[in-house]
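This follows on from our talk about sequence and fold. Go ahead and set the record down below:
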Amino acid sequence: MTRLRKAVAVVTAVAAALLLAPMNAHAAEYGCTGTLIDTYKVMSRVPNHLSTIRLYYNSSTGYNCAANVKTAYYSQFKHQASISMYNQDFREDDNNRPGYNNDFDSGKFQYYAGPVKVYAKGKCVTIRAITYYYDEVAIKDAVGVHCG
């Protein structure tokens, strides 16, 4: 067998294995583990779809995780983007423990803001994403979602 045929055989075998392998429900995406449970479009008034909230739940840990992912066109540029999430137990005076009752990420990002993670076993979560593109702004509030 020639070197070229061996290389083609190896590539074909790897491609077949990748196509037949089941997707791991706990694969990490945007820094989140668990299963994707919902998406929310973050739209401007124009209306332009600037980004998407991707919400995950990890049943083994009880944590929800979310990222504000810019759409393809808007990910060509670094502009301000943010995402915040809190569970129904969050109170302004609870010592603001990031990562337990609430979490927040903001900055000039090219691809996405986040991840943000909160404990949500048996609780509802509220998520807010904001994405800027020059003077255009898109905001999405998902209030009291995925209770359970």
Notes: The longest strand covers residues 49-58. Residues 7-26 have pLDDT under 50 and may be disordered. Residues 51 and 71 are 5 Å apart (CA to CA). Residues 3-20 form the longest helix (18 residues).
